Amino acid sequence: MYLVLRRFAALCLFAGAMFPAAAQNTVSGAGSTFVEPVLAKWAAQWSQRNSAVIRYEGVGSGAGIDRLKAGRADFAATDAPLKDEELQAGGWRQFPIVAGGIVPVTNLRGVGRKRVRLTGPLLARIFQGKITRWNDPALQAVNGVFTLPDEPITVVRRGDSSGITYNFTAYLSKISAEWAAELGTGKTVKWPVGIAAEGNAGLGQRVIETPFSIGYVEYGYALQHEMQIVNLYATAERAISPTQTTIRNALESADWRSAAEFNLLLVGIQGTDTWPIAASTWIVMPRDAQKAQNVREALAFFDWALQRGGETADALGYTPLPPGLIGLIRDSWKR
Does any domain span residue 9? Predict the structure, then answer.
């Protein structure tokens, strides 16, 4: 019996040497933590059906671009679009892949399902450290009969280079001249207050763990973790909630045809039914797809994601791109 098993094992080794399993090519990407959940899901679906394996690591938008520059990634994902001159210098193309919302979130004890309501300027003053208690008269005035707690506000903000921070601070710069003058827009800013957290999930978890805190995260993450989402006033009378509809309204209001490299921000778009901190994630990759197999594989993956991945994105709280924009993106690949 032992001799039979040995001969069988040898035969298997011989067969394996003669007919090796087809190797799967690995395409690597890095960047935005905002888009990491949906990219990971798409990558798993794609890799089951195709010869290439897509591996993506959410390290932050800035770090993703650094990896692409260093040749350590085949593509990068960023929530802060690159300028035309940056793309030209790198020999890269850029296009949006999905949209979503950035939402302020709180951790207030004993309020049940009630949501804090804020104006944009009040939100800016909290993150500037100029409003420091939840029951500040200015906050209480916009929250009506909802009595806010007499507790200090703990600000939680990103400590890494973040596209989510870029969009969040771009919104605050648009809505508050004081913020624009003192802090401005950036993947990192000189925060005057707050606890630093790494990544979208890291910031969200820190808010969950910290009583009477406020932070900002991706909308889908807030939904999945049942976080307290802040409503923002669009007019003096009406506060807007982030939903797929209000985020989609911002996405569809943008004039995408006006930007050949799709570098448009969605923050601060005015409308009675439009979420004011909508954002898209851009893919940045080498422009010439004919020079490298991995680049061709990545482009095929994103083509599939744009045309077939909408249902998955929607289920995770993201907003799929509209057909007209997908058409513009696919046309841009021919240039």
Answer: no
